[in-house]
Amino acid sequence: MLYKGGCHCGAVRYEVRMAPPPKAFGCNCSICSITGALLAFVPASDFTLVAGEGATTDYQFGKKHIHHRFCSTCGVRPYAHGAGKDGAEMMAINLRCLADFDELALPVERFDGASL
Ligand SMILES: [Zn+2]
Questions:
Q1: Residues lying with their CB under 5 A of ligand 1, a single-atom ion
Q2: Which of 81, 91, 98, 104 is least buried, going by the fewest C-beta atoms within 10 A?
Q3: Percent of the chain residues topping a pLDDT of 70
Q4: Domains of the chain: which residue ranges?
Q5: Which tens digit of pLDDT belongs to each residue from 35-77?
């Protein structure tokens, strides 16, 4: 499936190719706890940034393993990226930012991002 997503104001838009996620990950790290993101993880090769390369702020904290991308205009965090355990670049898709997608229908599994 090809999903379209982005931020609230439309400056940041992307497409992600993935099977329909059977569940959403709720991450317990300090930023996801505050922002309420519900996530799916995909390889970077399945993600295409359509617009907004220069429209985001790249926020990092803690061990700085992950780049949290916020829209500099509307403040929404539609995705994040970083190297996975095997070194491959991974995307964390904020399912709340996908168009025509009911993330609230999915069971939520706890993801221990706090210990990464
Ligand atoms: Zn925006």
A1: 7, 9, 11, 71, 73-74
A2: 104
A3: 100
A4: 2-115
A5: 999 999 999 999 999 999 899 999 998 888 889 999 999 999 9
Ligand 1 midpoint to CA 86 (Å): 32
Beta strands in the chain (DSSP E): 2-6, 13-17, 24-27, 38-43, 47-51, 56-59, 66-71, 79-83, 89-94, 108-111
Q: Tell me the pLDDT of the chain averaged across its residues.
A: 94
* Residue pointed to by tokens 């539609």: 78
The arrangement of secondary structure in 2-115, i.e. its CATH architecture, is: Beta Complex (2.170)
Cα-flanking dihedrals φ and ψ of residue 89, to 5°? Answer: -70, 130
Q: What spacing in Å lies between the alpha carbon of 35 and ligand 1's midpoint?
A: 15
